[in-house]
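2024-03-11 09:14:02 DEBUG pipeline.ingest accepted 1 chain
2024-03-11 09:14:02 DEBUG pipeline.ingest length=371
2024-03-11 09:14:03 DEBUG pipeline.predict start
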Amino acid sequence: MKTFSSKSDAIQPSQNPNQEDRSSSAKCEWDFRISAVVSSAVTDGPISDTLGVIEINPSATLFATGGIARKIRVYSLNSLLSIPPSTAVDHATACRFCICTPAKLSSLKWKPGTAGRVMGSADYDGVVTEYDLETKMPVFERDEHNGRRVWSMDYCGWDPMLGASGSDDGTMQMWDPRHDDGGKHVGTVRLGSPVCCVEFSPFGGALLAVGCADRKAYVYDVRKMDKAVAVFNGHERTVSYTRFLDDRTVMTSGTDGCLKMWDVEDQTLIRTYRGHTNQRRFVGLSIWRNQGLIGCGSESNQVFVYDKRWGEPIWVHGFEPAGGSRSRSSERGFVSSICWSQEGEDDCTLVAGGSDGVVKIFSGKRKPYVN
């Protein structure tokens, strides 16, 4: 599972929300319910199926999971939504197909422009691999991170051949298979501390956001990588996730137990979000951009949903295993991955995964009237 041991994590998180957050009044305009549960048949013994990543495809028909079990599992979202939520199905039954991988997985991305056929992955052995999902075979591989764990990888939306990865080796690297050296070192940024997240702007621009264990987040213009166009310095511990909310706004998540929203152009903090628990693990961060809803996991084994307008959560759901079963492991469970479908306007779908391997699918619908 993803944990931290860097020096920056020894600092205790701040307990004082800013004035804007204290005076906000969070209002939930949505009804959420569990629509499906997928669980492992075996839940005893050490945690061995922690889900490190969930990714829904752009058409919201499939989602994929990866993690400690060294498997890419692909599911039909529509098929699972047709099963009564009171019926917990097993991974082996629910999964459309599975690809076994040589190492534990930290990141997955559907490659744009391939009609859902190619998926990229990053693993604990420092390798980025692309898989053809029809043949279930690797079609591209690169391992320029010196065997150090790769935490995150992503593809550029306006040029899907361009990819980026961030690693424990303290670098963010960009690559392109069309490059003369076989896809190596199109660009390298040396940050000196583990790079935990990379994300290209999905809005067609040239921006790339990077989260780092030095407690900072950076935004680069991929056309000129020698200097960051924005540096966000406000977290008190490792920045584990960066996500674009729109073409000039970035969300960050830190192991100081808070989320922050930043203006890229002004390099200013817009709002801080608190409620979930996060001090040492990756717990996931995803944004439903259509309506500005933010989802994250928690070390309290709960799913949290925030509205971008308020610093307090609008919805919290306890993430106990299906049927109340528990692992015999003494370690408390936590929600480790989360992903919104980007489809819909007045309804939404959120998929979350836990440290016990359980997947829960939540459906949300806008309330007809909110006072």
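2024-03-11 09:14:41 DEBUG pipeline.report The CA atoms of residues 40 and 91 lie 6 Å apart.
2024-03-11 09:14:41 DEBUG pipeline.predict end
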